[in-house]
Amino acid sequence: MGIGGCIVLIVVGAILTFASDWELESVDLDLVGLIMMAVGGIGLAVYTSIYKRRRTAGGAIPVVEEHRRDVI
């Protein structure tokens, strides 16, 4: 799940929790929304930490120095 999926989970969870007045007998939509926001937040934190580690560990390019000898 990437950044987009995490943000979608957070947004849909917030809509279910704060902006909907639906009532179902067997499902508490406020709790479902809170769970979706929590999963989206945790996923976003995990994704950014893995992306940060991957970017710092593998991003180094070795420097190659070249020396030329000009022959006259």
TrEMBL record:
Pfam families: DUF6458. It comes from the Bacteria. The chain crosses the membrane at residues 29-47. Keywords: Membrane, Transmembrane, Transmembrane helix. Residues 1-51 form the DUF6458 domain. InterPro entries: DUF6458. This is Drug/metabolite transporter (DMT)-like permease. It comes from Streptomyces avidinii. The lineage of its organism: Bacteria, Bacillati, Actinomycetota, Actinomycetes, Kitasatosporales.
